[in-house]
Amino acid sequence: MPLITTAISTPFTFILYRHWNGKRASYLLWWTVGVFFYGIGTLTESLTTLFGWNAIFFKAWYIPGALLGGAPLAQGSVYLLFRNERLARRLAVMLVAIILCVSMLVLFSPLRTEHAETYRLSGSVLEWQWIRLFTPVINLYAFIFLVGGAFYSAYKYLKRGKQFHDRFLGNIFIAVGALLPGVGGASAKAGYVEVLYVTELIGIILIWIGYHAVAHSESVSIHEKQRLSLQNR
């Protein structure tokens, strides 16, 4: 199932890249990076399922999966929603700095291999368990700006009437799709890793459907940066 998720993420990444390449909008670049790492994370899950657990797969999974699963997508939403470009850049610098520091800690942390499960990945393998305290902070950032931003946009479009129905639905799909992996992550921590695999797959499908609805809408976006980028898609 994670392999299917990666297979879906790959063409989606190229579509976002072409969109960004045509406009060079910051929010599109961050969304491209986000979907790319989303697919990398599920790829490492697939490799573990197929070939078994090892330290390389684990650390290659923890960084793109736990740290980069939703944060770049959220930062893309920050660039889209914030009119203050300087503030968006400062938040981006802060986010990148935190992710780089935590990534280095993950790379250098000893591993408790006795906690490893043969065909599943879990952060409980880290010797420095306190590292895992950073992931809820990063995930909260993703929840506020990615999920919250999509719901906010959906609400604004809903108020504008039926002619914005496609944009309203598109943002609802994005919000729900972004929320599902978080639900799956909570289930994985409780020991139900398979739930995460399902929610990751459904999540990326919903996000792509939402993006397609918004990108091909004939109505005008409420976001100035999106209006400019869609005019040049």
Quickly list its features:
single chain; 233 residues; mainly alpha; Rhopdopsin 7-helix transmembrane proteins; 9 helices; globular
Model description:
The longest helix has 27 residues, at 134-160. The protein has helices at 2-23, 26-51, 55-67, 71-81, 85-108, 134-160, 165-189, 193-215, 224-231. The chain is globular. The chain has a single domain (2-220), classed as Rhopdopsin 7-helix transmembrane proteins, CATH 1.20.1070. It is built from nine helices and no strands. It is mostly helical. Helix 2 (26-51) runs antiparallel to helix 3 and helix 4 crosses helix 6 (134-160). The mean pLDDT is 86.
Sequence-ordered SSE layout with sheet pairings:
Blueprint: H1 2-23, H2 26-51, H3 55-67, H4 71-81, H5 85-108, H6 134-160, H7 165-189, H8 193-215, H9 224-231
Brief overview:
This protein is an all-alpha fold. Helices cover 77% and strands 0% of the residues. Helix 2 runs antiparallel to helix 4.
For the record, what CATH class applies? Mainly Alpha
Uncertain parts: none
Give the CATH topology.
Rhopdopsin 7-helix transmembrane proteins
**Structural class designation:** mainly alpha
End-to-end distance, in Å? Answer: 32 Å
**Number of helices, counting only DSSP H or I runs of 4 residues or more:** 9
- Name the overall outline: globular
Please give the share of residues in helix: over 70%
Strands, total number = 0
Q: List the helices and strands in order.
A: HHHHHHHHH
CATH architecture: Up-down Bundle
What profile does the largest beta sheet have? none
